[in-house]
Amino acid sequence: MTDVKRRVARAGAAVLICVLAVVLAPLSAVAAPPAGACRDPEPARPAIGKLPWAQQVLDPRGVWTHSTGAGVVVAVVDSGVDVDHPQLRPDGKVLRGQDFFLVGDLPGSFDCVSHGTAVASIVAAAVVDGIGFHGVAPSARILPVRVTDADQSRGKETSIDPNVLARGIRYAADNGAKVINLSLAGTKDEVVVRDAVAYAQGKDALVIAAAGNFQGDGSAELPSFPAAYEGVLGVGAVDIAGARIDGSQIGRYVDLVAPGGGVLAATRSAGHTYWEGTSFAAPFVAGTAALVRSAWPELSAEEVARRLLATASPARGGQGSRSYGAGIVNPYRAVTEGLTDNPPGERPGIVKPAPDPAEIRVAAWWSDTGSTTRGWTIGLLSSAVVVLVVVVAVSLGRRRRWAPGRVEPPTAEPVRDEPPEQLFLLDPPPVDR
């Protein structure tokens, strides 16, 4: 009878575990890809400890005393996010999310190609010992929305199903995302995607999109969607020297730029690597938007976008450049600077004060005194000069016993001191004879 009870107890425990797994599955994030989900998974890479140039240049740590992005959900509509990465695991940073690429009710918190993991880490990776890399807004939470299993940063035309992308954007807006990062670009204006972006904007979500990596050597404006949609912040990429990287597209949809050339970010399976492209510039802006939305919760998405543009650092292209937009995103200025919609006030006119009678009398006295003093000074100096001349003349006269001071003028014909005549080898000149 004891064995029967033991078997019943084990069976009951197994059933309970299964029930709990089913009930809690929507609430927990599972990083391990489902069986068969990854056809060719990105291999694991080692962790890199040094502080990357992008974090040095933007220095997001400097603004963390004012905002770390707490309370803001940033949707990463991408290839998923590896929730088990050491810098994305703390404090439930990555939510369960949703997979719209594979059939079935799967989470978005796994990644086969590391692209979405890299993007999420630039937004919100936590600070860990021994690793210089960290996210812009480490207290922000990531909502992973999986719409592809391909790396969209390899310079190829996007292959995402527009209907899947649109569903992912709407899901992000419906699940509390106040910032939506779209590190993807295409040349076609898809109505379903355009409508989904407008839907998200109607829910006060700030949509940020990569400008694209297809520019090549030409300067002609190439189409880029969703960056070109109304109200979307399009982000170009610059390198460590502040120059536009090769491929970063040029167009009126480039609103501002951020580091995107050789930037360090996380990979699946706890590693890091260097990435290239506008896909990785966009999350620097998304992270900054999370900082602003946390520090200034009363601002609308449109007001946050204006703030990001107004506080950007100057870039090579100058204000409003088709290559650099408003400039390079500046997290510190975006959070800390006080902005106002009020027009500048007129400067008051200069009112000349009425003269003080007492000061006028004093100034007149000094003026009169100065004139009198100058006159006496000139007179005394003149007298001194005259006296000096007289004294010198008398002294010289007494020394010569009042004899004339000038000598007799020389004769018209000078006296010639001739040598002895025998020294002349020739007859002397007529004038000397």
Automatic annotation (TrEMBL):
PROSITE patterns given in the database record: SUBTILASE, SUBTILASE_ASP, SUBTILASE_HIS, SUBTILASE_SER
Catalytic residues (UniProt): D78 (charge relay system), H115 (charge relay system), S279 (charge relay system)
Keywords, ordered alphabetically: Cell membrane, Hydrolase, Membrane, Protease, Serine protease, Signal, Transmembrane, Transmembrane helix
One GO cellular component, as annotated: plasma membrane
Signal peptide feature range: 1-31
Membrane topology value: Single-pass membrane protein
Principal location listed in the UniProt entry: membrane
Residues covered by the Peptidase S8/S53 domain: 69-327
Gene Ontology MF: a single term: serine-type endopeptidase activity
GO annotation terms (biological process): proteolysis
Disordered: annotated span: 404-433
Segments passing through the bilayer: 376-396
Subcellular location: Cell membrane
PANTHER family to which the protein is assigned, alphabetical: CELL WALL-ASSOCIATED PROTEASE (PTHR43399:SF4), SUBTILISIN-RELATED (PTHR43399)
Alphabetized NCBIfam families for the sequence: T7SS_mycosin
Family to which the UniProt record says this protein belongs: Belongs to the peptidase S8 family.
Protein name: Type VII secretion-associated serine protease mycosin
Native organism: Amycolatopsis marina
